[in-house]
Amino acid sequence: MFKPFFIFSLIFISVVNAGWYWGNHCGREARNRNAPIQDAFDAACYQHDRCQESGTPDWLCSVQVGMAMTQASAMTGQPIPSQILSGFAAEHGRKRK
After folding, report:
1. Using CA atoms, how far apart are residues 8 and 20, in angstroms rounded to an integer?
2. Contacts of 59 (CB under 8 A, 6+ apart)
3. For the segment 34-49, what is each residue's pLDDT rounded down to a tens digit?
4. pLDDT at 92 (0 to 100)
5. Is residue 97 part of a domain?
6. How confident is the model at residue 18 (pLDDT cuts 50, 70, 90)?
7. CA angle 9-91-55, nearest 5°?
8. For residue 23, what are the domain limits?
9. By the 8 A CB rule, do 25 and 35 touch?
10. Among 10, 26, 47, 58, which is 20 to 30 Å from 73 by CA?
């Protein structure tokens, strides 16, 4: 119970924009919206990007991507890739302007 909650809380407070780091859609540098989705985690990032483009508040998009990542992990039986978690952490480890 602790591990999924911990992973969800890391993602909950995060935004995918610390550079490219997973699949075709995870990270600020992943800009080709027509690139094929690589896996369930990449699909979560794709949906996060579309959420942000729609004008939805960033905090709500972050909640949605956190839930989608947790679901992708449960569905695939794989942990959320460390590249995604470290990318989120890197983004929130620096000061925002």
Report:
1. 20
2. none
3. 899 999 999 999 999 8
4. 57
5. no
6. very low
7. 80
8. 2-30+37-92
9. yes
10. 58
**Has residue 88 been placed in a domain?**
yes
C-alpha to C-alpha distance for 24 and 86, rounded to whole angstroms: 17
Spacing of C-alpha 77 from chain mean position = 17
Cα distances (Å, whole numbers) of residue 25 to 5, 6, 45, 48, 50: 24, 23, 5, 9, 10
Q: Band of the pLDDT at 84, cuts 50, 70, 90?
A: confident
pLDDT in tens, 57-77: 988 998 899 999 999 999 999
Structure tokens, 65 = 């991507």
Spatial neighbors of 53 by CB under 8 A, at least 6 apart, are: none
Cα dihedral across residues 22, 55, 4, 9: positive or negative: positive
Quote the distance between the C-alpha of residue 30 and its chain's center: 12
| SS3 (DSSP) at 7 | helix
Helix (H) or strand (E) holding 2: helix 2-12
